Amino acid sequence: MEDNQIEREIIINKSKPNQIKGLLMAIIFGLIGALFWVSTVQVTGYNLQPVILLIGYMVSQCFVWNGKSEMKKWGVIAAIVTTICILFGKIIIMIAAVSQFYNISFYEMLSILNYPQLMKIIATTISPLEIIFYIIAIKFTYERSFDIPKNNSTFPLNAETTIPIPTPESEAR
Fold first, then answer.
1. How many CB atoms lie within 10 A of CB 19?
2. How far, CA to CA in Å, does 74 sit from each of 13, 18, 71, 82, 144?
3. Cα 146 to Cα 133: distance, rounded to the nearest angstrom
4. Distance between alpha carbon 12 and the CA centroid of its chain, in Å?
5. What does pTM read for this prediction?
6. Band (72; pLDDT cuts 50, 70, 90)
């Protein structure tokens, strides 16, 4: 009898939210999304703004999978993570563009770059369409990161879930 209760406790505890794990995964996947954005710009030569939405989706999905929180502060944190990852991607794109313009390596450009000047360059080169995609990605991340699906499809167990544990009587039937 005690073994069944212990198994039930373990299963229920595994289904509880883990916001710190969600935050760490969101940062990792947000940076991966930013690097994917940088690589699409480098490969195609075009700044594909819809890729920005991918960053927001990846960050929010990490919070949905792991965070499972209904608190709005996690939505704000997810929006901040998305903003930082988008800015990281934009900075890398600009450093790569400047290094290509001057025909020097990316790493050499990192060593000689005037970073305050880079921020001015980024501010002057952002298009209104790009700002719209930033806002959409951040808003989507905020709204979705603390939204728990109604049908529990993302996480099958919650505190109210009852788990049928087979007993010798039920197996005999």
1. 18
2. 21, 11, 6, 12, 10
3. 21
4. 25
5. 0.72
6. confident
